[in-house]
Amino acid sequence: MKLFLSLVCVALGASQALAQRDFSQVEIKVIPVSQNIYMLEGSGGNIGVSVGSDGLLIVDDQFAPLAEKIAIALKKLDAGKLKFVLNTHWHGDHTGGNAFFGKEAHIVAHTNVRKRLADSKDTKKEALPVITFDQSLSVHFNGEEIKVIHLPPGHTDGDSVIHFTKANVVHMGDQFFAGKFPFIDLGSGGDVAGYTRNVGEVLKKIPADAKIIPGHGPLATVEDLRTFHTMLLETTGLVSKALAEGKTLEDVKAAGLPDKWKSWGTGFINTSRWLEISYNSLSKK
Ligand SMILES: [Zn+2]
Description:
Elements: H1 2-10, H2 15-19, E1 29-34, E2 37-41, E3 47-52, E4 55-59, H3 67-77, E5 82-86, H4 92-95, H5 98-101, E6 106-110, H6 111-119, E7 131-133, E8 136-141, E9 144-150, E10 160-164, E11 169-171, H7 192-205, E12 211-213, E13 220-221, H8 222-244, H9 249-255, H10 271-282
Parallel strand pairs: 4-5, 5-6, 6-7, 11-12
Antiparallel strand pairs: 1-2, 2-3, 3-4, 8-9, 9-10, 10-11, 12-13
The protein binds zinc ion.
């Protein structure tokens, strides 16, 4: 499980595990989202793409060994120049392509993304964001305002969601695992209560008919995000209640979760791991 996690979401530091992984069979799939916005699926976090007369902008860039395949998929979409890479957070399955794409495009991310990448000894200089911000910023590109909005500690302490305001698309980064329990990186400043709050705050602000690109999982709707929020509230509520009653982590794991959440434990994070993350985070308070 540890190896699996490091592959999926955790770290640039897991380069040894990465080197052993075979990416040669991974195909990059292009999914139209809305107007000039596309989603790329391969391995790792979903990539958002804006194409148009100003060129290309991408949100996240998956694992380093996939960069050339991603570049080919982008070229097929549009021959324009890649101008910007926005990073939703620092994890290697979202920033692994930075060193490759950073040679031609400006990388934009929250201050803590640059800090955490810079602290990792494996990071090349070209992989570091060159434009950083603390709260939010906008890129005016391909005829719309693309808002990059930092959220308080949730998945990590440096996450942002990206809102393509005219195309009506929101890229949630890892603040959304569609239909699955999320990974929350407590070691990178993540926080389960904050994560849940963040999803609730985003839901309050986005149009009901927005298309949602999750960090992991298929293209989604606002309704899917609302279901995810309900799952977070209910499952972490059960853990909070158990904590208040003095239950141990073993008790909580033994009790498990109601059957209706069973399918949510079939992704990177199974039910037991989700309970553990929730317990460890919520017991810190
Ligand atoms: Zn992540």
